């Protein structure tokens, strides 16, 4: 193309009038959240939670305190900026004064960092569950390094903590980054107990209002989804309703099973492979395909 034609294309692309409904006009000095920076933040958090497995592989017991301190310092700066960007992006924050947003983002960042020991404690139980549940696992280290379920649940526990602290948009970005990395799709709003494991993992979907108890094991292809949800008087889907399954303690759900709606799977139940469930399941029940 000639330079004139190129300029004409640029002008057409810069004219967003016909697509204004999907364009976001951020204010001056209020940058959008960055997927690249959020990826760096997740890796920083993983390096703090599991030093040596992520980040600098040379870390040892003598350098541990320094290593974690440096990464926490960097994490505070990057995370506060991204939380600020998320707050500025959120329509409900549009009228807030910048100094107020700065204060809120700093407070949320500090509260999140305070929760890191608790997040690590929960992930420790997930690693144990993954190791104990897989005879092919040779060590806890192999589980941390290699298992997509651990990467997905670590991202989820990070995203869920941020969501509960009131951070908009950022938790969903983190969950979708994990989805792209592992093939496991967990909405940051899902509530997940301790000793949770996803074996293999590819194709697992866990919806926003799903609740999962302790010591639950799921295999690849499992869906904890919603039925078709109701419409309002204008035919628009009603959002924000409780629409996903509630999974009790000590439940096993085998591969490619689909559980839909706000149903309860009782403690100790076993859902066999390729089962469609849209009703409550009694504690201790076993659902399998008829031969």
Protein architecture, described:
There is one protein chain. The protein contains eight helices and 14 strands. The model has no long low-confidence stretch (mean pLDDT 91). Strands 1-4-7-10-13 form a five-stranded parallel beta sheet. A five-stranded parallel beta sheet has the order 3-6-9-12-14. It has 291 residues and is of the alpha/beta class.
The rough form would be described as globular
Alpha carbon gyration radius? 22 Å
Helix/strand structural class: alpha/beta
The overall pLDDT average reads 91
| Annotation, overall tally of beta strands | 14
Helix content: 40-55%
Which range does the strand content fall in? Answer: 5-15%
Report the biggest beta sheet as strand number plus sense, adding barrel if it closes.
5 strands, parallel
**How many helix segments?**
8
* Helix-strand sequence: HHHHHHHHEEEEEEEEEEEEEE
What is the rounded distance between the termini? 65 Å
What are the segments in which pLDDT stays under 50 over at least 5 consecutive residues?
A: none
Q: Strand arrangement, largest sheet?
A: 1-4-7-10-13
